[in-house]
Amino acid sequence: MEYTHLGRSGLSVSRLCLGTMNFGWKTEEADAHDVMDRALAEGVNFFDTANVYGFGAGKGRTEEVLGTWFARGGERREKTVLATKVYGSMTDWPNDTFLSARNLVRSCEASLRRMQTNWIDLYQFHHVDLSTPWDEIWQACETLVAQGKVLYVGSSNHAAWQIAAANEAAARRHFPGLVSEQSHYNLLTRHVELEVLPAAQHYAVGVIPWSPLAGGLLAGVLGKQEGDRRRAAEERVERHRPALQAYEDACREWGLAPADVGLAWLLHQPAVTAPIVGPRTMEQFEGSLGALDVRLDEAQLARLDEIFPGYDAAPMEYAW
């Protein structure tokens, strides 16, 4: 397993991040425990979750599954870099949502209880809150860090100007600010190359891509049986069919699995720390490990750019 620092921090994380979104409601608890054990055995030390995972009436369930896994001991908690997120509503009451100081502190306490741990390594803002000032957000985070309940802070789904505003506000308070940003990024979805990635690199914020295989479209969807393809949203498949066909043809020519190529491409991007793989089964998790051994050369990377054109950093993309 290869490791890298999370952004400008001294925290070492694996180049793959285990996403746990399916655990506890799509993946049975015992099976989820097996996947997490296998992840640690393979050297994957970076696990991502969120307080709302479990969804609907089951919000918080995924964090509970992590908690029962940590409770099994064997240094599971000590070996894991644990990331969770806060923002989404956990109840119908007005102050149990977004990034107010009240919700940040209370949500952190609730996540700690569910996960049966004393600290969260990376506490992430699941979405941007345009109604709460950064000074209030950072005041709450400073309290949590001072108490040892949170070690690092990151964002998710934030625009470049919001990353800049956050870290400039933190700097005025002599607080480290954001060390990571979780963004929607894959070969099919490259909008973050315009401004988010340049901002992340400027502030030494590590980028953690979610949906790295575009909901399965980059995992060889055209080669799957008709029944499997229906589950992968046939309308999206048809919209991107020419590019997906060219992609799968290239992967076949190179003798590589499409899913491995999609993940490996992200690992070749300089701003990326670790893409999130979110398996439902052990087989899916094991399949993601192959990407770590794939090295794409310049010609292969150029061909992928031809199939899935990206963006130059703004304003060069659209200005003289």
Description:
The chain is of the alpha/beta class and 320 residues long. It has a single domain, classed as NADP-dependent oxidoreductase domain (TIM Barrel). 40% of the residues lie in helices and 14% in strands. The chain has 13 helices and ten strands. It has helices at residues 29-41, 61-70, 76-79, 101-115, 134-146, 160-172, 196-202, 226-231, 234-239, 241-254, 258-267, 282-288, 298-307; strands at residues 3-5, 12-14, 17-19, 46-48, 81-86, 120-125, 150-156, 178-184, 206-210, 276-277. Strands 9-8-7-6-5-4-3-10 form an eight-stranded parallel sheet. Strand 5 (81-86), helix 4 (101-115) and strand 6 form a beta-alpha-beta unit. Helix 4 (101-115) packs parallel to helix 5 (134-146) and helix 6 runs parallel beside helix 7 (196-202). 42% of the residues are buried. The model has no long low-confidence stretch (mean pLDDT 96).
Blueprint (SSEs and pairs):
Layout: E1 3-5, E2 12-14, E3 17-19, H1 29-41, E4 46-48, H2 61-70, H3 76-79, E5 81-86, H4 101-115, E6 120-125, H5 134-146, E7 150-156, H6 160-172, E8 178-184, H7 196-202, E9 206-210, H8 226-231, H9 234-239, H10 241-254, H11 258-267, E10 276-277, H12 282-288, H13 298-307
Parallel strand pairs: 3-4, 3-10, 4-5, 5-6, 6-7, 7-8, 8-9
Antiparallel strand pairs: 1-2
Helix pairs in contact: 2-4, 4-5, 6-7
